Amino acid sequence: MEITVQATNNVFIVGTLVESTYHSPDEIPDKDKYISGQVSIATPSLDTDEAKENIIPVHFYAKKYKNDGNANPAFDNISKMQSDFISKMTANDVPGTTPSKVRINSGTLTENAFYGNNDQLVSGFRVRNAFFALAKAEEEAMVQFETKIVIANIKDEVDREDNPTGRIVVKGVIVQYGGRAEFVEFIAEDDNVIEAINSNWEQNETVKVSGRIRYYAKTLTEEASSDGDTFGRKVNKSKTFFVKELLIEGGSASPCDDDQAYNIKDIGTALTQRNERLEESKKKSQEKNNKNKANSSGKAKGF
Which of the two ends of the chain, N or C, has the fewest CB atoms closer than 10 A to its terminal CB? Predict the structure, then answer.
């Protein structure tokens, strides 16, 4: 049976606008116009031992007109943000200006899944939003989420050497608009939260989950080794990566009642449709890559 009820799925953010990018092509007909892009919003660090801010990227896309032909308020809102809001990047270049403080009341968590160049599926999460507002100066910076998920599995987290980290990973299915099912992973690291999850949650159950988003850049430096046949200053190697986590801080003490839970067979059907969409996307990407290779194969090489 087709799923008709969208899951509760909310993201709330208050923070400083760090940077923004907008894309709205002029060469297309007015009826087809849209605006898309991303803003980055700074919120306090979740970690007392980290001096870094959470810089949360928020993606948006809005057509100028709705399907019924009327103006789309989301398009107008984002266009106003583009013209009126000031990012930290802009404020640094314009004396006398301060970056805008932004509020998001109705963001959503979505899956960002795609096949990489090696045909391996890459899946993570992404925050999307359509309406942005200026926050009051006294509003406290924050980032929180609350959503309903169907539990796909719960497992212990391990590091690259397969050593347990002491945290657990909850893989959940979020039902989006139109009955689309998407996988999103959550992390639990507090001992009490882990105990509650392991004691009360089971695979295939529908539960509510809430928490905060951890999102920052981290740099690891590897000291250069000496093989005994070198001289001069050693050059260390540095690698920067992003820590992107949905940190569980609360949730249902017990699974949702049957009338509030999703039918697991319906979820299975929706996930099959998800896989079909991804395979179609993979096929199109491969065709595009093959076409690009064919176009470049005839070009002369050398000087």
Answer: C
pLDDT at 303: 41
**Helices (H), strands (E): how many in the chain?**
4, 11
CA 38, distance to chain mean position in Å, is: 11
pTM value?
A: 0.88
Q: Which two tokens stand for residue 187?
A: 């992390």
Q: Residue 140 falls within a domain, yes or no? A: yes
CA 213/CA 174 separation, integer angstroms: 17
Residue pLDDT, tens place only, 229-239: 666 677 777 77
What is the average pLDDT value for the chain, to the nearest integer?
91
Residue pair 113/123 in contact by the 8 Å Cβ criterion = yes
Q: CATH number of the domain that 268 lies in? A: 2.40.50.140
Residue 102 domain flag: yes
The string of pLDDT tens digits covering residues 64-93 is: 999 999 999 999 999 999 999 999 999 999
What is the identity of the amino acid at 119? Answer: D
Burial 83-112 (b: 16+ CB within 10 A, else e): eebebbeebeeeeeeebbbbbbeebbbbbe
Q: Per-residue DSSP letters for 262-288?
A: PPHHHHHHHHHHHHHHHHHHHHHHHHH
Alpha carbon 216 to its chain's center: 12
Tokens of 226: 């000496």
Closest to 194 (Cα-Cα) out of 173, 166, 220: 166
> Is 2 domain-assigned?
no
